[in-house]
Write a structure and sequence with these properties.
ligand-gated ion channel; about 150 residues; about 20% strand; 3-stranded antiparallel β-sheet; Jelly Rolls; about 45% helix; globular; alpha+beta
Length: about 150
């Protein structure tokens, strides 16, 4: 898990049909939050999780890294701290995976709301993916809904 102290890192994640979602992580951000879920999973799996994103430094960056064994030691010895609701909320709020999942679902809900308010009655054809862009967004949202980030903090 990497904590960015100063500098900027670009995060890019491949989507459907060759599209790429990118975001910039700055000082105070972190990456590799998949490792927390991996450490908290019971029964424990020795296989490291893979990241679905690619990270590239866009400028000179200074970072602090915790290796998987160090993070596992922390979660084993302070497991009761990870049950704290405030910590769960904070981890999900700053997680790039949870943010991407939330952004897609908010955008989908907004498009449905706008379509309902403009048209009055929703046409079942348009509800099932009428517009090409909307149809792709629905497929992307369905993918993320099925692969909702799991943090194993429950």
């Amino acid at each position: 898990m990497v904590f960015i102290v100063c500098g900027r890192v670009s995060r890019s994640q491949g989507l459907v049909r060759g599209k790429v979602a990118t975001s910039i992580l700055a000082a105070g951000s972190f990456l590799g939050d998949e490792l927390i879920s991996w450490c908290l999973r019971r029964p424990f799996l020795d296989r490291l999780p893979s990241s679905s994103a690619t990270f590239t430094c866009t400028q000179s960056t200074e970072a602090f890294a915790l290796e998987a064994d160090d993070l596992r030691y922390i979660t084993d010895h302070f497991r009761y701290h990870f049950a704290n609701e405030s910590l769960k909320w904070t981890a999900r709020y700053y997680s790039s995976n949870w943010r991407m999942w939330a952004a897609v679902n908010i955008q989908l809900a907004w498009r449905r709301y706008v379509r309902r308010t403009k048209c009055g009655v929703v046409d079942p054809v348009s509800e099932n993916g009428g517009g090409d862009g909307d149809h792709r967004l629905r497929k992307y949202a369905a993918m993320f809904l099925s692969l909702r980030p799991h943090d194993h903090l429950e």
